[in-house]
Each structure stands twice: as structure tokens, then as C-alpha cells.
Write a structure and sequence with these properties.
It contains eleven helices and 13 strands. The chain is of the alpha+beta class. Strands 1, 2, 3, 4, 5, 6, 7, 12 and 13 form a nine-stranded antiparallel beta sheet that branches. A two-stranded parallel ribbon has the order 8-11. A hairpin with a 2-residue loop joins strand 2 and strand 3. Helix 2 crosses helix 3. The termini are far apart.
């Protein structure tokens, strides 16, 4: 009975009060690494100067860790924040329309590029910045937890990767069909996702003892219930330890879902059920449209 209640709670999270339509809204997340004129990752001092300048020119500080600015937000709800590396900055757009999302993302990125050039640095348009230096910064409590669980050796290589992701709303009845459509075409995504190797090494090297498919995940599902059954195989991170899903107390489902890094995963924002498409490499901005078109081709099939 307890297992059934737990399962129903998760299914309800994805279904209760959902009113979204497929492609009603969409958002983009773009990670960009910044380097100096020699191609070396910038120092924390430089990325702080960049964020500080933006905070005085159209953006406001959304989060601090001590004296470090770790996140900014603008009046439209778009965000800029660290993505693990001291040199790696992510743009996360607010929910937008299909016609506008790339324009919003590029506008935010253009502002960061302009500030970067002011400080003598430039964006690095590739998914992996090779090198041996530890570039980790731990911008929030969640990332501090990963560091304690994983060990620095396992986590640090992820700081040298950057990706592009799209998160779009779906109707409940479309969700499993679209997830399976992505699963059927996974090879077309992984063909240009070299950080797949880095992620797999992270899972195997981590002290945490993750199940192998905590990254990547299953790719085909019979139903939403089947999706939830696959999820709850993975333990919940509470504090600095793991707890099985049925035994987790005060479970934050949203945070739990963020800790399971499937290539294509369900998320919820307010009354919208969404799918996040994750395995896309960071390339030049001109590639965004091709990456979005690949996603839309599957959604609209």
C-alpha cells in the first residue's frame, strides 16, 4: 500500500491541475564557457566582474553566495547563473513562445558577449574545453551536496562541458508519445554530444554509487505510470545521504527530478507539464535553429 501511495503521489505531481497544451510555451537553456585570448578558462574574478557589470546594467542580483554573485535576473524573468565552472555561465530564458524563444536567448547572450569583450575575454563555442585544471565553483547548496556525494575528481570534468537544452510544454496525452519519439532518435542526438563520455565517466567514478541509468535513462515508456516506476528506482538525495524513494521524508519532487539526468525528462512548472530535451552540444549561436528544428520535428511528428 505504501508503494502504491508513493507512486500515486508522483503521478499526481505530473497530472493534477495540468492545463498545458503541446508547444504552448518553450524555454531555452544555453551554457557558454568563457576563455582569455590564450584559450584559457577565465578566473572567478573575471566572471564576477562580468556579472557585476550586468547587475548594474539591466539585470539585478538574484542570488549571492557570500560575496559572490551567483545568479542574475532581468525584468522578463530571464536568468544568468554559474553552471559549475568558474568560467561557465548559463542563460535560462523565461517561458516564451516558439517564435520568440531564440530571439530572447540570443539577446541575453549578446549582452554577456559584449561585457566579456570589455574585459578582454570571449565565448568558447564548443561543448568541451579540454585541460586538466580544476575549474569547479560551487554556487549553491545543491552543488555543494553533489561535491560531497561525488568527490571532486568525479565532478570536476563536468565543469568543462557546455550544452543547449529546450524545455517545452506538452498536453498530458501527448507526453509519453513524444518521449518515445525522442527515444527512438537518440542516436541522432548523441552523434553530436561528445560530453556523453564525460557524463558516463562521472556516473562510474562518483563515490555515490549511482545506478548506471541515472544519467541517460530509459528511452521508451508504456505509460506515464511506467515512467514513474522507472524514476522511483533511483534513491533520493537528502542532506548528504541517499534514501529510497518510499522512505524519503519531506520530499521535494522538483529537486528530486533535477537529480536524475535523463536525456529527455518530464518537468512541471506551475500548471504546465513539460519535456526537457537535454543532449545537445554547445556550438556557435547559428546552430540553435538547427537544434530547435530537430526537437520540433520529433514533437510534431
Amino acid at each position: 500500500m505504501k508503494g502504491e501511495r508513493i507512486m500515486q503521489r508522483l503521478i499526481s505531481y505530473f497530472t493534477d491541475g495540468i492545463t498545458s497544451r503541446t508547444l504552448q510555451t518553450i524555454g531555452a537553456e544555453v551554457e557558454t564557457q568563457f576563455v582569455d585570448k590564450n584559450g584559457v578558462a577565465i578566473q572567478t574574478q573575471t566572471s564576477q566582474q562580468m556579472l557585476g557589470y550586468l547587475a548594474k546594467n539591466g539585470w539585478k542580483v538574484d542570488c549571492l553566495k557570500g560575496s559572490l554573485i551567483t545568479a542574475l535576473v532581468d525584468r522578463g524573468g530571464n536568468k544568468i547563473f554559474y553552471e559549475l565552472g568558474r568560467h561557465n555561465i548559463e542563460v535560462s530564458t523565461a517561458a516564451s513562445t516558439l517564435d520568440c524563444v531564440l530571439g530572447v536567448a540570443k539577446k541575453c547572450l549578446a549582452q554577456i558577449y559584449q561585457v566579456a569583450w570589455m574585459f578582454g575575454v570571449e565565448p568558447y563555442f564548443a561543448p568541451i574545453l579540454f585541460g586538466d585544471e580544476d575549474l569547479l565553483v560551487i554556487p549553491d547548496e545543491r552543488d555543494a551536496t553533489w561535491l560531497e556525494l561525488d568527490g571532486r575528481k568525479a565532478l570536476a570534468p563536468l565543469a568543462r562541458t557546455s550544452s543547449v537544452q529546450f524545455t517545452f510544454s506538452v498536453a498530458i496525452q501527448d507526453a509519453v508519445r513524444i518521449l518515445n519519439g525522442f527515444g527512438e532518435r537518440i542516436e541522432s542526438f548523441l552523434a553530436d554530444f561528445p560530453q556523453d563520455v564525460v557524463w558516463k565517466r562521472y556516473i562510474s567514478d562518483s563515490f555515490a554509487g549511482y545506478l548506471p541509468d541515472r544519467y541517460g535513462g530509459p528511452l521508451m515508456f508504456e505509460s506515464l505510470e511506467g515512467y514513474c516506476r522507472a524514476l522511483v528506482r533511483h534513491d533520493v538525495i537528502q542532506g548528504s545521504r541517499f534514501v529510497t524513494f518510499p522512505n524519503a521524508s519531506d520530499l521535494d519532487i522538483s529537486l528530486y527530478l533535477r537529480s536524475i539526468w535523463w536525456h529527455f525528462r518530464l518537468k512541471r512548472y506551475s500548471n504546465a507539464l513539460c519535456i526537457e530535451a537535454r543532449p545537445m552540444a554547445r556550438r556557435a549561436d547559428e546552430q540553435f535553429q538547427c537544434q530547435l528544428d530537430r526537437v520540433l520535428e520529433i514533437v510534431c511528428a
